[in-house]
Fold these 2 entries.
Entry 1:
Amino acid sequence: MTGLADGVLGGLDGMLGDLEECYVDLHRHPELSYQEIRTAARVAERLAGLDYRVTTGVGGTGVVGVLDNGPGPTVLLRADMDALPVAELTGLPYASTATAIDGDGRRVPVMHACGHDMHVTWLLGAARLLAAARADWRGSVAVVFQPAEEFGGGAQAMVDDGLFELVGVPDVVLGQHVAPAPAGMVLCRAGTIMAASDSVLVRLFGRGGHGSRPETTVDPVVMAAATVLRLQTVVSREIAATDAAVVTVGAINAGTQDNVIPSEAELRVNVRSFDQQVRRRALAAVERIVRAEATASGAPREPEITVTNSFPITVNDEPATLRLTAAFTDHFGADRVVEAPLATGSEDFGVLGDACGAPSVFWFVGGIDAAAFAEAEATGRLETDVPSNHSPHFAPVPHPTIATGVRALVAAALAWLRDGPGDRARA
Amino acid sequence: MTGLADGVLGGLDGMLGDLEECYVDLHRHPELSYQEIRTAARVAERLAGLDYRVTTGVGGTGVVGVLDNGPGPTVLLRADMDALPVAELTGLPYASTATAIDGDGRRVPVMHACGHDMHVTWLLGAARLLAAARADWRGSVAVVFQPAEEFGGGAQAMVDDGLFELVGVPDVVLGQHVAPAPAGMVLCRAGTIMAASDSVLVRLFGRGGHGSRPETTVDPVVMAAATVLRLQTVVSREIAATDAAVVTVGAINAGTQDNVIPSEAELRVNVRSFDQQVRRRALAAVERIVRAEATASGAPREPEITVTNSFPITVNDEPATLRLTAAFTDHFGADRVVEAPLATGSEDFGVLGDACGAPSVFWFVGGIDAAAFAEAEATGRLETDVPSNHSPHFAPVPHPTIATGVRALVAAALAWLRDGPGDRARA
Amino acid sequence: MTGLADGVLGGLDGMLGDLEECYVDLHRHPELSYQEIRTAARVAERLAGLDYRVTTGVGGTGVVGVLDNGPGPTVLLRADMDALPVAELTGLPYASTATAIDGDGRRVPVMHACGHDMHVTWLLGAARLLAAARADWRGSVAVVFQPAEEFGGGAQAMVDDGLFELVGVPDVVLGQHVAPAPAGMVLCRAGTIMAASDSVLVRLFGRGGHGSRPETTVDPVVMAAATVLRLQTVVSREIAATDAAVVTVGAINAGTQDNVIPSEAELRVNVRSFDQQVRRRALAAVERIVRAEATASGAPREPEITVTNSFPITVNDEPATLRLTAAFTDHFGADRVVEAPLATGSEDFGVLGDACGAPSVFWFVGGIDAAAFAEAEATGRLETDVPSNHSPHFAPVPHPTIATGVRALVAAALAWLRDGPGDRARA
Amino acid sequence: MTGLADGVLGGLDGMLGDLEECYVDLHRHPELSYQEIRTAARVAERLAGLDYRVTTGVGGTGVVGVLDNGPGPTVLLRADMDALPVAELTGLPYASTATAIDGDGRRVPVMHACGHDMHVTWLLGAARLLAAARADWRGSVAVVFQPAEEFGGGAQAMVDDGLFELVGVPDVVLGQHVAPAPAGMVLCRAGTIMAASDSVLVRLFGRGGHGSRPETTVDPVVMAAATVLRLQTVVSREIAATDAAVVTVGAINAGTQDNVIPSEAELRVNVRSFDQQVRRRALAAVERIVRAEATASGAPREPEITVTNSFPITVNDEPATLRLTAAFTDHFGADRVVEAPLATGSEDFGVLGDACGAPSVFWFVGGIDAAAFAEAEATGRLETDVPSNHSPHFAPVPHPTIATGVRALVAAALAWLRDGPGDRARA
């Protein structure tokens, strides 16, 4: 098998310059969820000349390319395309200065702070290599460029819009994510690998008035602040230390000026869990606390609590993970393939395998310069010096990150695809 | 003196329809501080035909009209023109739907939630009546339409831009404000009548990151929430019950989405006080708490604490207040002139008298339908049923509020102006 | 009248050594509310030889002495006897080292931290002087030594136990308190002088368990802490700045060790107000917050909220206050009689006048060395250097505090009593 | 080996009545750490007739019995003896009503809420059986009855007082704990099994004063409450969800009455962790927060933060655990031996093995009626219906808990001891 992947990947070196340009271009032009117009257009252009059957506008802005290459298994490879409303602070020459109108009608800065630009680049590279080497393998490859992973819904939207009618039921669904680990490394684990995530939008209602006469108002700023502090107790008091959960209030917004008490406050709460029972308990506690804190303030109206978004737990199929890990070990060597820790991040990748009943595997690819990573680790400064995903400082190094991700995708796909005559000839 | 005011005010009834149109037009077109372009233009137009010497652009968008009418005292009458970033909820047929870009570059709704539209209308009515009856009095009247009272600085800006070179040093500075009291009533008090106000902008710095990995971040949302709760103790623990102070956090803003921990939070704090020592103690406590809560969070950087705006205590000159109250009692009858309670609201009106060394008096004019007010009072529902200034529901009734305010201004001015030959002839 | 008081007070100087001994003895032997056994015995002993008709055990440990001295008005003079569960830190040679069992069965330190030892000393001195000079006045004097002022109920207990059957209806009820003001000064005001006080005992119920497994418990420590912080908002947000109220949590107690989560927490809350409406609003807010915070914690049982104790507002009768102030001014000179500020402290003194329908007046007598007070004031260190009542450092100076209080009581009583033949002879 | 244990345990059934009496007696007479006078006396009495070489007063109240029974390995079996300051609420006929004076001089209720009465009973039963069957085995058995496990220090005190001079270096150190698991089950795991625990005593200093004048004080109740709420963020924000830690404030105490603001508050904080780095981070965060909250309050003096007590992580030696688990499986059958979950509880048991360099193993024995446990589990009410250790409701069922623990100790000891001639004869 090594030989097969090595063969297919033979053209990679000559392609790296072009892939880096692609990456930098995408990085400079990040787009929010469901607004991936330009990104999808670039993807479609690049697939155009490669014999993939390309369908655009799948689930909004999604792009699907299918390369039917004779009888054999079907492998679905997925990359997500959207960026985040974060103001980039990397200082890179190709840092984003883009802005966009978000779902609430606000103009916000936009940045690929989660590395989806890298994901798209990887999958474009793999798509091209697999197409170029189609003599070497048999089966079908479906490359799926998904919109709107960040705010969830993108995977489901593609499913609902007929993804599996375009692709058929694949034998395996594969996906990968760039991570704050040393570039050159791949990280995977069987079973649960990523958390469930629930986004809860909380609207708290007070009664506005003049800042100097709080006694005529019900102050939603105080209500929101008390709620945020009390929400800390969900994890500190209500979840066992040996269970894992996160309750983050990512946004608190109320009022615009000091001398007017506003009438509402908004909290955006994110709940992570790895277990359905923990998840239910945490969500119930959030609701209980929000309602009680509104009552403590004498709120004139019940809060509105809306789950706007849910990601399932990401669970890697055990046999498929074993097959994948074996392929990685063959290709990269055992020292570059490590067991991933349980990640508190979430993904809607799992929706794809669930929807079609196929096994799925998700893994991580390091994106941090290995020497810098080692130094940060040695000096105990990993957390301060190695920005994680969603940080305004998150910036994977293009090399060897681009090459590693392309290699991983190709090696993974070939672990399921059948040998082609070209490969057999070479052997 | 009664006769004089009654004579000058003879023309008021025929003018009320026009003044109501003026009021409704201003209410429909509110403008933020220093953006009072349209309002100033309407003011200048209306002054144009009345023999006032009109200067526009004083202190930005301010308008000054001076009517020199023979030897005698100079009376300065001041109205403020600006509106607030509040989304109107009055349901009135002439409710504002306006928006504007605020000082932070955000598009915000705009509403005359503090009644400055009424103030402008009053002063235009008084200006017209005084001009029409100029045979009845002697002296000079300066009508001053001030920008940017809400965020302070407007009065100072006019002073700095030469207001008193245009007007000379007046014998008295007079101003009035519409208040949640029964329409038809005027309310005044000698000595301190309104609070000092300090606006404090607080920027809290954390370290952003992924919502699922709080341990890699310093969460500014929690830091801000803890700060807001702790700031409640300034008034509850550090100011004597028998002193008066208010510490309001009118705005708390951090983050835009649930799964990204932002790197900063912003608080807008307003401090009210009636005494310099209380003021210093409250401001020092705010600073101490903000810094300590940042330390409690392990903030990577000290908070920025900026006093963006300060209003002085508004103090009514005692002899001038006596003269004014006597004039009001003569004109309105004793039952419509009551002692104003100490108001926690603030004004930059006091800047004008301080700057020129003249005595000044500020008073309130009721704007709530008297029957509705009485019923709310009787049923103990004043606070819920009578919206106060800055509420999105604040809506003075045009009648008799417009007439009462015009009458008060004219009666007040004539308490200082000298009788003219017209009046003496009539007598 | 001056002459009369001066005459009666002629014997004071020779008595001061004995009164100081009495004071020091009482200070060394403080007793908690309703435990004033030794104090009452000392009082009865001292009254014994003075021709007062003495009744002990009135309302528990109260002592009443009546001296009927011919036809004329009846003056009731009241002193309270009880001490506080405070560990004395004055460092005085006669500092208390006493302990006692409190109402909850706990052994606690006891200290005259509120100066009732001084009050008893004053009234004993005045009683003796009035008895000695009985030729100089006519009427009746009732000296009332009340138990249990600190935890309220003592005045009511005496009333219920027939105080006014012993005394008759007096013409005036008079009382005085030592205060952190310069020794030698007396301070009074007409109308409201002291606050209402309500003591609220809050029991919060959680579910106990092992400190390492909070998820199996409902943590009452967190519940109590959140409640305390939220209670700060009653004053900061729900009471107008121009109204006065205090909400103090004087005690929070839960648990005894770090690794056991207790099942209950107890808060002792004190609410001060000067107005019935403010009082009702504050008490309602306390209850609302306590209940809501228990709900936020998921408490298995509703909190218990008990008003254990209430003091009324202390209101000085206006004409009686005028008469009293005139007498003080005559006796002390105008520079030693000042208007008292509104005090947030509370008293059950007002119960006596209310119960019998007589006017009552309450005033303060300074107890701090005048030079030390002046220096603290000049250096802005009044709050740190001059301990207030209930502080473990509170320590009135015996001289001239003892003499001033005796003089004030005698001058006050004589302002109502009628001249006697002795005085008239002297005149 | 099965045969050996079965033989030695042959006498158990006839002994159960006596052991239950022993258990009930101990349960009725719980004693606090280092006060185990009566318990130690009972232990010494029972060992007296059994040929053990008994030493009392080891490390305070500890008791050591050594039975040298020919050449062979030495097995150290340890039980802890102390109880907790908890008021028993089990309603059992033999419930404790005992009280004692704790280390702070307070009279507190005492209860065997952690089951050490069961531990002592088990070890006495095993000691008797091993002595009776001494023909069946060779080697030495040391039975160690340790004081003061709850507040730590007991194991170290015995070591410091010459435990291993009495016993020699054992081949293995064994201990067991009754747990809220089904009676009849034993639970063990290799590697880390219990958490590190650090007890942190926090004294917060304010400035006391009258409850009605908070502005003259620095309120330690508010300081303590804010600190407790902020401490919740250590786990919720500073420890990764996939790491395990607990920060519990088990006690908060300040003040005794509502109208006196006390000058100090005391918090008792417990920190649990399974990893040195997490432990250091949590302890540092506790200190940072305590200091900053004192600063936020304007405390006149730095808080005192004292680690009063630390338990190490309990780590089971891997080979020894394998040997033990094999012996348990042989004796009880595989269905009664399960892998223990990581427990957030802590022990000073690990001190013994560390001190002498011997491998050690610690395990759990279920104490809850199996049917009741199964029903609680089935109805999702484990947490409410099955009280955990340290709960006032914690009550192991005597049967089969007593027998199971004795069997486990004997089977465990014999897994190291050598066959004796008696056993060989039988075989």
Entry 2:
Amino acid sequence: MTRQELFENIKKKKSFLCVGLDTDITKIPQHLLKSEDPIFEFNKQIIDATKDFAVSFKPNMAFYETQGAKGWISLEKTINYINKLSPDLFTIADAKRGDIGNTSKMYAKAFLENLNFDSITVAPYMGEDSVTPFMEYKNKWVILLALTSNSGAHDFQLNEMYSTFEKGIDVNSPLEKGIDVNSPLEKGARGIELYQQVLAKSKSWSTPDNMMYVVGATKAEMLTDIRKIVPESFLLVPGVGAQGGSLEAVAKFGMNKQCGLLVNSSRGIIYASTAENFAEKAREEAMKLQVEMSILLDKFL
Amino acid sequence: MTRQELFENIKKKKSFLCVGLDTDITKIPQHLLKSEDPIFEFNKQIIDATKDFAVSFKPNMAFYETQGAKGWISLEKTINYINKLSPDLFTIADAKRGDIGNTSKMYAKAFLENLNFDSITVAPYMGEDSVTPFMEYKNKWVILLALTSNSGAHDFQLNEMYSTFEKGIDVNSPLEKGIDVNSPLEKGARGIELYQQVLAKSKSWSTPDNMMYVVGATKAEMLTDIRKIVPESFLLVPGVGAQGGSLEAVAKFGMNKQCGLLVNSSRGIIYASTAENFAEKAREEAMKLQVEMSILLDKFL
């Protein structure tokens, strides 16, 4: 899917909602456990119930791998179901992969070719050659972890770095529009944080047409700084709903001319109820978010 | 497996070799493709041929996931085969996972409980709560990425950071034995590199009995600095063999009183030949490394 197509789908549905399919066998309604493939059955009903209000679906791999080969089959059925249902649904393999080039290529094949996801989340720690193999597929996307919504984001992502300015990296191109590299360095007191470094440096390997970023919504006010570095890129924002975070603040600080946002909700939608009418309840929660998003699109787009 | 048990196995075999099972269906000998599960058949023959010279086996998940559910079954058979063959073989799921706590827990269950690996490689980018769920299994291990052997290590891992010293982190405990935090900061000219920060900070979440580190061998001289931060920890060193890197330098700069090293070779062993006698050739390559390691253990232990 191209960036323009994603934007068209957002406008059409008046929604930038991504539904996270973090399907935990211990949390799905009891009555589904009788079916042959309870995880797929659950996903199918959730997808059918929420597809009118969501532009994207994001299964998290951990929940499938914990079921072994059977889980992988549930995953295959899920992605095939979504792809068959509509080419307009943007699919995200939330895998947070990343390895040496040779090996990242294998992961890319697994998720973007074999399973035919539109995109995959990738961890940046191993640098450029661990990320670029995922960008070799036309109209497919890397969604690079930048700022995550968990408490551990403070351990490394929010630490400041400075030496890159001295080591011959071209600070002018990715950074010039964003961070004021001169003032903090002249003062000798402030660098840029690791997640900002990830945003800035990855811009030299990618374009806003093949890379998005994960940006945690618990820090909505930071979206202003983030938008200075990556004004055009789509941002995948987790952490609205069960993990807290205000949708209005995300839209206010993060929206760009093509919306530029996919806001994920997992537990708040898929576990809205564990009764037999769970799908209906999920639909109601998805619709609530879509209504709110529709208003925010009118206000900020 | 405990640290002491691993050390006993190293002394018994006079080897600190880990064989990387990066089993690529397009690279294994043609005649195996006739068998029902070529990947498992290849692994089985490699394991049988090299087990006398290796203390550890490390399948990389990417090579299995690229085969879908079938690949997951090959992986299950492989880990079960190793575990049944000998409890003395230290098994590593090279998965480089890491997600929010809730989700990392699922990955931990998948690899350390269901598949019963002794250890899993984990990416540090998301911080403490993404790593600690993997440490809830007794005598199982996290192998945290610190310094990797690919060129992308220069993008973030080798960048210097400084602000943590100002932000109330207890610089005395993990760092005091290692890096001289005073001098670089007083000069205002040098911080510590991100990978050193990962080593230092993760020490406060872990012990040398439940955490090891991935340290790329292409930078053997850096092992001196690394040993100042993590003197007791085991280090998993990739990049000897096909990726280059001197075994002697790794032993010289990296070995501690319990050896403290697992040196991995993948392609150099498993693809030594693609002829029908590939396993015999793999055995020869593994033996060569074991002989060299035996000498290095005598010299540096």
